[in-house]
Amino acid sequence: MKTLSLCIAAGLGLSACAGGMIGNTGQNNNVNGIVTQYPVETAMLNIYTKQRSDKLVAVVGSQSVSAEIQVTPKGSMVFNNKSVQGTEINTINKMNNQITNQSVAINYFTLNPLIFHGFTDGTGKYSLSNQTTTIPKVATVGASSKLLTENVYADSSMRNKIGTYNQDWSLSRDTNNTAWFCIETSGNLLLSFDPAGTSSECYKINAKGDILASKVTLSQPNSNGNTKTVTLNSQ
After folding, report:
1. CA-to-CA distance for 72 and 41, rounded, in angstroms?
2. How many CB atoms lie within 10 A of CB 131?
3. What is the pLDDT of residues 59-83, one digit of tens each?
4. Cβ atoms within 10 Å of 40's Cβ, excluding its own
5. 8 Å CB contact between 109 and 117
6. Residue 135, class by beta-carbon neighbours within 10 Å (0-12 exposed, 13-18 middle, 19+ buried)?
7. Which H, E and C letters describe the chain, residue by residue?
């Protein structure tokens, strides 16, 4: 699954790269009115499969950077000889309001349950996802799980594997009635030395699974053992 954060890295000078159906889902509230469960599958659908736009911004040193993201459903498609649904993610990176990079990727998935099968992008990259767990309809605050392992190839011939990444999800409390739903992407598991960084893509959601805000944190190791971290927040 091509997460949105991975399209942002180029505009930051970092190498970190891995590359909804709204329904009535019940949430349990305690006696104090605190929401303890959230519809994480609905949130995931709203993030990756529904029409939406977002703008993430940060200041890195003296430079202002941003990523303008447009998610557009593409309908029925064929991927890896399977009938799937596709969604295009178009990301425009800017530094000091000047465009530095634009990337286009398509995620491929099936519904009921939501399963991600891989992505392609404008550079020719081709990935196959092995989703190891089903995304639950509802999760309790504090829950987390492995999501998938993704193999990324230079092109559709799949002769040259250029990356393997793990992705996990987690749900943590924000306020009494909002939570942060996060997708964590590991560094490139093919590289034992300098794994090219990690990313965390988080979305503030309410009890209906609506997306209220977002933030992306990119972490890049350097040669002296320290880690450079940049966080972009929705505007």
Report:
1. 19
2. 19
3. 988 889 899 999 999 999 999 999 9
4. 24
5. yes
6. buried
7. CCCHHHHCHHHHCCCCCCCCCCCCCCCCECCCCCECEECHHHHHHHHHCCCEEEEEEEEECCEEEEEEEEEEEEEEEEECCEEEEEEEEEEEEEECCEEEEEEEEEEEEECCCCEEEEEEECCCCEEEEEECCCCCCCEECCCEEEEEEEEEECCCCCCCEEEEEEEEEEEEEEECCEEEEEEEECCCCCCCCCCCCEEEEEEEECCCCCEEEEEEEEEEECCCCCEEEEEEEEC
The Cα 1–Cα 19 span in angstroms is 8
Distance (Å, whole) CA 115 – CA 107: 11
Mean per-residue pLDDT, 104-130: 94
Which residues share a beta bridge with 198? 219
* C-alpha 59, offset from chain centre: 21
**Chain segment 185-227, per-residue pLDDT in tens:** 988 888 766 566 788 999 999 999 999 999 999 887 776 767 7
Q: Which residue in the block uniquely carries the two structure tokens 């709203």?
A: 46
In this structure, how many other beta carbons lie within 10 angstroms of the beta carbon of residue 192? Answer: 7
